[in-house]
Structures are given as C-alpha cells and as structure tokens.
Design goal:
Elements lengths: L1 H16 L3 H4 L8 E4 L2 E4 L1 H10 L14 H10 L4 E5 L8 H7 L8 E7 L1 H14 L1 E8 L4 H7 L15 E4 L2 H4 L6 E2 L9 E11 L15 E4 L5 E10 L2 H29 L1 H7 L3
Antiparallel strand pairs: 1-2, 3-4, 4-10, 5-8, 6-9, 7-8, 8-10
C-alpha cells in the first residue's frame, strides 16, 4: 500500500498547490474546513502547512493518532470512489497498454491500475457490451489527476476545443506526450517531486464519440459525453531534478553564444579594426 498511498497523497498535493485548487480539489478535506456564522470556509493555507509536515509513507505509522497530519492522511487514503494498484511488470498489462508503456523515451517509471466503485463500473460495462470499446490515451497536467480519479473526466473543463467540446484522446501515446504537463506533487513522494502523467482510458464506440474522419485528424478521438470513457491506468513519469538544472544552463549557453556573435559582428564592422588589419 505504500506506493499506492504515496500516489494518492501526491495527486492530492498537486491539486492543492495548483492556482486552480478550488476547482480541482473536490472533494475537499473536512479536516480543514472552518464554519463561522453558518458560512463554511476552506482553509487552504493550513492544509498546505499540514501537507508539508506529513512524513514519508514508510514513517506514517509513527504519527500521533489525534494529530492533524494523521487525520488528513487517513481522510486521503480512505476515499471510496476508487482504488489504485501498482503494476510491477508490463506482463500484467493488456497488450495494447503494454506496448505503449514500453515505447522508447515514453517508458513510464510507474504504472498504476485504477478500479472504480461497483455502481459506475457496472454501468460502463453495459455500454462496452452494447457498443464495443478501444484503448486510448490522454495527456494532461498532473494536477488534474485528483479530480479525474474522484470525479471522472469533466469535458467542459478542457481548454482544447478545436474539433468540438469534449475530452481529447489519442490512439498513440506518443501524441499525448505533447499535452503532458509536469506538476509538483508531494515533496516526500517516492514517485518524485516533479511528476508527469498519461491517463490510459477505455473509450466506448458510441455514435456520439468522434473518431478519425474528415473532421477529426488521424489518431485523435473526441469524447463529448463523460460517461463514454473511463480511466483504467496511470502512466507516471518522474522528472529528475537534474533536468531542471540543465535547462537554465543550456539557455545561458545560447545567450553567451548570441552575445559573442554580436561582439564579432561589431568588431568586424569597426573601422579602426579594419585599418589595423589592413582591410581598408
């Protein structure tokens, strides 16, 4: 449970730290809601402070039973809308999912299976049986995962609408990598502090779903109705801190090269240097 619990806390932390926290962090933990004069107020600052004090999962058993940290952790881990299971090897994945998980630079550092509550699972299975389905991939910001796990997909919240309103997916996981957005999760997570994600989904072959056609590009799928898809796996990608240090270094090298180039052009055009070199 350590790795699964670690991810639960990490997706919660990513949503809590987002500037869209009030939209993404639903449900919000009642442990950090204060009611005054009949008005409920979400105490986000206190929540972030409690999150910062949480120990690594392996040490969580040492938390005092009545502490705010223990209360928050238990609330996060006892949610009943879904459950997660770490997948140790690609052999446990369906062939289409395993193939995507092993593609070159897109190989995830961790894979988790998602199980939903029995009621929602039964309704979706009926749709699958009636229409058929296929596996597709959805690249998104890591801060969105908490909302996806607890509330499913919300197509009205999507920023992309070039081919109509809906949730955008692809049959090729490499296409989705262009839409991944790393976010800071839980600072003590085994998964890493800066994390990216691809959500693997099952999409029902319903008439309302838009598959590749004259209007929809190849490898793209647009699902207008949230009931016609469900998340089944998470591909987690850990962005090592060294990458963050390398990017500024490369930028400074480019700036230095540009400055040297401008200096060389200026010197070449300088009349005194031309006379010194006998160019004129």
């Amino acid at each position: 449970m350590d790795l699964e619990g670690d991810l639960e806390v990490s997706v919660f932390a990513a949503a809590a730290q987002s500037f869209r926290w009030d939209t993404l962090l639903r449900p919000f933990p009642p442990t950090h809601v204060r009611t005054e004069a009949g008005v409920a107020e979400k105490c986000r600052d206190e929540l972030l402070e409690t999150l910062a004090r949480l120990p690594p999962m392996r040490d969580s058993a040492g938390l005092a039973a009545e502490s705010p940290e223990s209360a928050l952790l238990q609330w996060i881990l006892r949610r009943k809308s879904h459950s997660l299971r770490a997948i140790p090897t690609a052999a446990e994945l369906p062939p289409a999912v395993a193939q995507a998980a092993l593609k070159g630079h897109l190989k995830p550092t961790h894979v988790f299976a998602i199980s939903r509550s029995s009621a929602s699972e039964e309704a979706f299975e009926q749709l699958k049986s009636a229409h058929g389905y296929e596996v597709a991939f959805h690249g998104t910001a890591f801060e969105n995962v908490y909302s996806i796990l607890h509330n499913g997909f919300c197509s009205h919240m999507n920023k992309t609408s070039l081919y109509g309103e809906g949730t955008y997916l692809s049959t090729d996981s490499r296409v989705c990598s262009n839409f991944m957005k790393a976010a800071h999760g839980w600072q003590r997570s085994q998964l890493g502090h800066l994390v990216s994600v691809i959500v693997v989904c099952e999409v029902v072959h319903h008439p309302d779903v838009k598959f590749p056609s004259r209007e929809i590009p190849d490898k793209y799928i647009v699902v207008p109705n949230n009931d016609h898809l469900r998340p089944v796996y998470l591909f987690i990608y850990r962005d090592e801190p060294v990458r963050d240090r390398a990017r500024p270094a490369r930028m400074w090298m480019l700036y230095l090269f540009y400055a040297l180039l401008l200096l060389a052009i200026g010197l070449y055009r300088a009349k005194w240097l031309q006379r010194l070199l006998g160019l004129r």
